Every structure is written in structure tokens, then in C-alpha cells.
């Protein structure tokens, strides 16, 4: 925690250091953390402009925009939530105490998606744009596969975490593992209640795909599959977490429990699966139609892979019909050789330099005990945007 420099304090930042900010699991914030999002007229699309099949992009966007002031403590409030199919409104009524968590999960999913794709041509911004920008998410593309998986993971993650923090009256900590802990460790703390998160999250996420008459069967199967992949990635993120005890942090005794990784770590895992996603077709296999890999290899779809039905555009040029915003004016990195490099980001069109001033904390000094003072330094950096 750092406080802004006081005008009288000679531009000193003061940061109080706690153990948790020093923990190895602590991560640097993404570079896009403080960046303003392009402003858009509020009001949003009306409920009727969404076919119910477009969860989570519609429901999530609507939920993420739910004003903080909206009370969610009466069943009548469920009707005020936009974008939900009737089965979800029903779930809302019977699990009202979950709804704050679901709304929180929607916000987390959007933020996490944008962060995970900040360095890509497709940067997840369409998750909150007007309906006519939705093609990238509604066509059954690789991008929509990622969004469905992440959304399903986000809901279950949020519910499991809410159990741990005691925010949900209806659930408690997860199980104490059956195996013995490591030497010097003991089980304790409060494990994330993953099974409850998965159960309730799946009910909520998958409800629209179970609606009979809407959307194509292939799309629904794709969404269900990818949501399950998201939950699988969440399951895989369960890890042992420990807290040290002992004289002055000597860590002679540790209390350990099973906890979920942060959603952004789950998103990183899903992004890897996005990059190697499999194109599938809806084809009869045996007595029913299934999603099977489009390429010649005859094998069923794996439980661990994200699948998509439609190829994506290259997202280089603006083309609203296919949901591409183009990369004109996107920032690129001249020294990177990854997806954010100017070559790849700008699709070979070239880029324009501009100078930017950055203010940062510098000359930081640690004082015993326990705070850090820093100076405030300004420098100019050259940045580049795509032509
Ligand atoms: C419901 O929420 C509103 C606004 O947050 C609050 O004023 C009201 O007292 C709450 N009602 C109950 C029954 O908790
Ligand atoms: C998780 O929460 C559910 C719902 O309250 C509860 O029934 C279950 O016992 C909890 N799981 C464990 C392992 O305690
Ligand atoms: C994401 O891409 C859109 C369209 O190219 C752009 O307008 C927006 O500024 C980008 N967002 C970020 C955070 O780079
Ligand atoms: C550009 O990429 C390089 C190499 O990956 C990295 O070290 C640097 O921090 C990046 N610059 C910006 C502004 O993101
Ligand atoms: C970038 O280049 C370095 C050195 O040539 C290489 O080790 C690294 O794997 C490359 N990264 C990517 C993303 O291509």
C-alpha cells in the first residue's frame, strides 16, 4: 500500500509493507491497470437486443455493469438484472445471497480477459461494446471459446472464494486433504470450497445452453464444452498454500490448505489452450451428432482442449461484420518479438512514434520497521502506435 506523494513531503511516496505484499504469490499489476477505457455513451443495449443464447457476453456484460447501488437482497431484484435467461432468474431467486458474488465474477472475468489479451490483436475489448460489435464473440470463434471458458471459471472461482471469506452464509470451507501434509506442516486455515463453486457456477453458467429453442445445437455444444474446459482449468489451479508461523517469521511451523490460484493465472492457462484450440465440426458419430475435430485425424474432442466452429479473421483491419476492430492506433512494442511487437500488431503497415511521460517511484529505501520511502521520478519514453 503506497500513499501518493504529499505536496509538502518533497514528492516522497510512502509504502507500508505487509507480509502479504511480499509473498511470492504476489504479482506485479498488469501494465494496463490504470489505463482509462474508451468512454462510451451509457445506457447500453436494451434487454430485447440480446437473444438469450449469448450468455455470457450479454449476461456478463450486463451483470458487470450492474450499478453497485442496486440492492440484491430481495427476490424481486432478480428481474432487474439484464441479460439473464429465465432459468438464471430462477437461480437468482433461490440463491439470492450468491448474486453479489456472480456480479463480482462478471467484473473480474472482463478485467481478466482484457489483461490476458492486452498484447494481442484481439484484446477482448468487444466484451463490453455495443451489440453490433459482438460478432467475434457470437460466431463460435476461438475468441468466444476463451470467453466462455474464462467466464465459467470466474463464476466458480468467485463462489469458492466467497465461501472461504465467509461472504456466503450457505457454505463453509473446503475439505481437509486426505494425505498428510509435508514435514513441519499442518493442515489448517480455510480451504477454498471448490466443489460448491463448481456446482453452483455450472448451474449458473450453463443455464442458457440448456434452453431448448434458442441457438444452434452446435453452438450450444461448443459453449458447454468450453465452459467445462474453464472449470477444468480452475480445478487444475488448486494448489497448496501455506502460512508461516514461528519466532519473528522463522517459519518453523507452517499452516497449509488447498487454495485456488488467482483468476489471472487460470486465464493464462486458458490462453495457452486458446492458442492451440481445435477447430471442430458438428457431425454424426454413432447415433448422435457430436463435435469432432475438423481435421482428418479421427479422434474425439479432448476434455482439456478449447474448441471452436468458425475461423477468426486476422483482426488486422476494421470489419464489423466479422467483429474485427483492426489494430490501427493500437500501441505496439518495438523491441518485443512477441504478439505485441510492432511487426505483428501492426500487420506490417508500419507505426508512428510518440513520446510519453511516465512518473514512477524511484530511489526507494526500506526503513525498519516497516515502511518504504520513494522519490518520484519523471522520464520521457518513446512509444509507438500502429498506422
Ligand atoms: C436491502 O438493501 C438496501 C440497499 O442496500 C437496504 O437499504 C435495505 O435495508 C436492505 N434490506 C434488507 C432486508 O436487508
Ligand atoms: C462446501 O460448502 C457446501 C455448501 O455449504 C457444504 O455442504 C460442504 O460441506 C462444503 N464442503 C466441504 C468439504 O466442507
Ligand atoms: C483494444 O483494441 C481496441 C480496438 O483496436 C482499441 O480501441 C482499444 O484501445 C484497445 N484497448 C487496449 C487496452 O489496448
Ligand atoms: C517491450 O518488450 C520488451 C521485450 O519483451 C520488454 O522488456 C519491454 O518492457 C516492453 N516495453 C513495453 C513498453 O511494454
Ligand atoms: C524472442 O527472441 C529471443 C531471442 O532471439 C528468443 O529466445 C525468444 O524465445 C523469442 N520470443 C518469442 C516470443 O518469439
TrEMBL record:
Signal peptide (from-to): 1-28
Function of the protein: Ligand for members of the frizzled family of seven transmembrane receptors.
Localization, UniProt: Secreted, Extracellular space, Extracellular matrix
Entries under CDD domains matching the protein: Wnt_Wnt11 (cd19343)
Family: Belongs to the Wnt family.
Keywords, alphabetical: Developmental protein, Disulfide bond, Extracellular matrix, Glycoprotein, Lipoprotein, Secreted, Signal, Wnt signaling pathway
Organism: Carlito syrichta (Philippine tarsier)
GO molecular function, one term: frizzled binding
Pfam families (alphabetical): wnt
Entry protein name: Protein Wnt
